[in-house]
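pasting tRNA (Guanosine(37)-N1)-methyltransferase TrmD for the record, 115 residues
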Amino acid sequence: MFQSPFEESIFKRATDNNLVRLEIHNFRDFAHDKHHAVDDSPYGGGAGMLLKPEPLFEAVEDVLREDPTPAPVILLSPQGRSFNQEVARELAKHERLIIICGHYEGFDERVREHL
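structre below
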């Protein structure tokens, strides 16, 4: 589904040299409706679609159940900090990271508050 960008270039070399390990989890696996929907309209209306909190919460809980090693949860969003060398050095200090890629208009605010 999302693997191909990581099979090239710098990330591939890091993986081949056992410097990093990537595990991709599909939010849809944690949605409970018949269409496995992970998006919804913003509460109170407005344009666009947001990622619903429930599938994201369940996905993170599942990841932590598989390996309880503490890990910061990083939400990738245009509203966040810019990724630069300083941020890369800060994140590299952690044994593992949980990175959640935003989609559509971003995340339901409950995701930011609780993860």
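The domain at 4-114 is CATH 3.40.1280.10 (Alpha/beta knot).
Residues 53-66 form the longest helix (14 residues).
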